[in-house]
From TrEMBL:
GO cellular component: outer membrane-bounded periplasmic space
Cleavable signal peptide: 1-34
Transmembrane stretches, start-end: none
Any one Gene Ontology molecular-function term assigned to this protein's record: carbohydrate binding
Keywords recorded for this protein, A-Z: Signal
A UniProt-annotated Pfam family: Peripla_BP_4
Ranges of residues in domain Periplasmic binding protein: 54-298
Taxonomic classification: Bacteria, Bacillati, Actinomycetota, Actinomycetes, Pseudonocardiales
Protein known as: Monosaccharide ABC transporter substrate-binding protein (CUT2 family)
Listed SUPFAM superfamilies: Periplasmic binding protein-like I
Species per Swiss-Prot/TrEMBL record: Tamaricihabitans halophyticus
Keyword Ribosomal protein set for record: no
Primary location group: other
Amino acid sequence: MSCGSRTRWRGTRLPWVLAVCAALVLAGCTGPSAQQPVDDAGAAADSDAPLRVAVISHSTPGDAFWDVVKAGAEAAGEELGVGVEYSQNPDPAGQARLIGNAVAQGATGLVVSMANPDALRDAIANARKAGIPVVTINSGAEESKEFGAIGHVGQDERIAGEATGERLADGNRRNVLCVIHEAGNVGLNDRCGGARDGFGGNNFRNLQVDINNPADVEARITGSLQTDQNIDTVLTLNPQIAANAVNAVRSTGTDAKVATFDVNPDVLSAIKAGDVLFAVDQQQYQQGYLPIVMLKLYRDNGNTLGGGEQVLTGPGFVDSSNVDEVNKYASRGTR
């Protein structure tokens, strides 16, 4: 989405009967007497204005994980009669510009992932000053409330990391290499930090790589496995890096196993083949879907969810015991 462009909002032609039924079922409201939400500046939101939500993520185009988030947001928009426009930029400054564009183009709701919260602080503050309610997703949960968001939807990365570390320890894994693929991403640091705590052993170290250089990623994981042959587990934080790790394990001929965060069809195939022990599933479809519901309930009925705490979508775990079931949903783009 760019300044001056004509924005096309999805999901605005839903039959009114379905929209009303969905609002009643989800909100449990009794009619139009529900209290209107009030923004930080004291201006009541106009419940008669079209709800047009800009969803702005820190991802790159074609990222399979974020394609599922987008699908969730657009599905909710179609079902609830909410206009949804999805845009993305992995650069924090670029993401902040997208937020500014959405405000200028008349968005009446905002959904933002915050991998680098400080870079988005001013842009989100400007949205709030304009009376636009904000829901944060995926990352930046610690800053969400401080920034004035009405809620956060995602996986607590520290909790997910701890559960992962405990699972590795319970599986008799003894020496873990945790691969961080994006410098400065607070969520990734929390994943490895939580996993270290949950693992509870000293034989746990991080490896910093750059996801934009796959050949170097594989080479650096290979080098680590060759240098320290005691490593029996490579924990990755992204499906693409998981594939690099599987290749590195094969090339070195070690007995090391790979576990990863996040699910896509390739990871599910690798689990079925025995190349990946398990994947941590944060059910990202919900990270797209639920914020649209939250913004509609807030606009129509003054509702908030979470009681000031984040709404958790994970962690869940996918392994050989449930991979076939999850694969059915992944094949249709919802897991």
